[in-house]
Amino acid sequence: IVLVVTPDPLSVLDSFATLKVLARRRPNIRVKVVMNMADNSEQGKSFFYRIHSVAKESLNVNVEFLGSVHR
Fold first, then answer.
1. Where are the alpha helices (DSSP H) in the chain?
2. By CB count within 10 A, which of 7, 35, 52, 55 is most buried?
3. Taking Cα atoms as reference points, which of 50, 49, 62 lies closest to residue 23?
4. Contacts made by residues 64-68, CB under 8 angstroms, sequence distance 24+
5. What is the pLDDT of residues 27-56, one digit of tens each?
């Protein structure tokens, strides 16, 4: 599964909701994240690490970073 997320707070919230549903349906799912519309690489990585931390701690889902697409 590739999850595309933007830095918009609603997009990040939607991504957590999607991860939660996926984790319930398939506990060992592999999810890769692309940060879309990032201002730069640092912003893309920063948002990814927040998603990664919450996904791992709260949902026990490991997500991988595929990269970011800049504006």
1. 9-25, 41-54
2. 35
3. 62
4. 64/30, 64/31, 64/32, 64/33, 65/32, 65/33, 65/35, 66/2, 66/32, 66/33, 66/34, 67/34, 67/35, 68/34, 68/35, 68/36, 68/38, 68/41, 68/43, 68/44
5. 888 999 999 999 999 999 998 999 999 999
> What is the separation, in whole angstroms, between the first and last Cα of the chain?
23
Q: What is this structure's pTM? A: 0.87
- For residue 7, report the phi and psi dihedrals to the nearest 5 degrees: -70, -10
Q: Which two tokens stand for residue 28?
A: 């060992």
Q: In a 3-state reduction of DSSP, which class is residue 70?
A: strand
